[in-house]
Design goal:
By secondary structure, this protein is mainly alpha-helical. The protein has one domain (about 5-45). Helices cover about 55% and strands about 0% of the residues. It has helices spanning about 5-25, 40-45. The mean pLDDT is about 90.
Amino acid sequence: MRGLKRDRSAEVIIAGHAFMQNLWRGHYELGAYARPHLRLAAAFDELAPVV
């Protein structure tokens, strides 16, 4: 059986997808000063020390 087996799994996937979309569109200050095609990489570089 494939797919998400619990509602919590779906919530995590949906929240992660929304976060990625918001990062990509520049709604956060993370990676704001990077070139658009490098914004996600810059944002994860900024987040890495915090996590």
